[in-house]
Design brief:
two-stranded antiparallel ribbon; 10 helices; 19% strand; globular
């Protein structure tokens, strides 16, 4: 099958699942790649925690931050919500910077990420990754901004209303009436940009090797493994990744390393036109499309 035929079939599969998206798979050894609309820019939701981790780990490496320094996090310190983590704490907690890195990246804890943003503000984190030669990703705001969407204004059982607003409010040029979904106002990036970031972590040149290794280890410990992980984890491969979710957006960026020594960056950025928060079928289709692109490239 030709690459063009494969893309055509996979676009149809995505459409049938109510999805559109941007995908890119790259062989990290040869640089060969295959994708679907990899230049399209998306709001990246929690994927921003990877460049944040790079910036914080870089500051620690440079001696500008102490990874062992204890940070006091108070209840209500951040408006950033989430299903778990520090946002659910009812009492003050003292946590080391290194441990905030783990909570933010591996546990996708929004409150921990905002505690790190207190140490390395969005503009500083953005500048750090640009100085490291990673372009195409823009860091504009903290995680607490992601809670200030219509999803926070509807009660239980009304999530579909927020999703309907998200689906129906996109403007031309990928703008959006909801600021957190507008690529000119949100933390943003493309599948190609995040693939470049993954290459910078797995084959570091301008990033310090210790910084890259630290972030790779955090991604390997990612506890959210329901999206692409089922199609990339096995006894003969390892999957290290970070997910991102906001309203109708579902993303994941990671690297699969095979026992034969080959490694492939895999990035999937998608948006759904189905007004529902829980869409396990869409998650499965995302993984199927990403795996099909990977398998095609691996057999070339």
């Amino acid at each position: 099958m030709s690459a063009e035929r494969l893309r055509y079939e996979l676009r149809g599969l995505l459409s049938d699942a109510g999805l559109s998206g941007s995908f890119l798979v790259r062989d990290l050894d040869t640089g060969q790649e295959i994708g679907i609309d990899p230049e399209v820019e998306f709001p990246v939701a929690s994927l921003v925690k990877v460049p944040l981790a790079i910036a914080v780990a870089g500051r620690i490496h440079d001696g500008l931050l102490d990874g062992a320094a204890m940070i006091e996090v108070l209840p209500g310190h951040t408006a950033a919500g989430g299903p778990g983590g520090l946002s659910q704490f009812r009492h003050p907690a003292r946590i080391a910077v290194d441990d905030l890195l783990y909570l933010s990246t591996a546990m996708t804890d929004n409150a921990a990420a905002d505690a790190l943003f207190d140490l390395v503000p969005p503009a500083a984190a953005d500048q750090y990754i640009r100085d490291a030669g990673i372009s195409g990703i823009t860091i504009r705001h903290r995680m607490r901004e992601l809670t200030q969407t219509p999803a926070g204004r509807f009660g239980p059982g009304e999530e579909h209303l927020a999703h309907s607003l998200a689906i129906g409010s996109r403007t031309s040029g990928r703008g959006h009436a909801i600021p957190q979904l507008d690529v000119t106002r949100a933390n943003s990036g493309s599948a190609r940009a995040f693939t470049d970031l993954l290459r910078a972590l797995w084959a570091p040149s301008r990033l310090p090797a210790e910084v890259a290794a630290r972030v790779r280890s955090l991604m390997a410990e990612n506890v959210l493994r329901h999206r692409l992980a089922p199609d990339f984890s096995s006894d003969s491969s390892t999957w290290s990744s970070k997910t991102g979710t906001l309203l109708n957006l579902r993303h994941e960026a990671g690297v699969v390393e095979h026992d034969d020594g080959s490694a492939y960056a895999v990035v999937a950025l998608t948006e759904s036109r189905v007004p529902a928060a829980a869409q396990p079928g869409a998650e499965a289709v995302m993984a199927q499309v990403a795996r099909s692109l990977h398998d095609y490239l691996r057999t070339r």
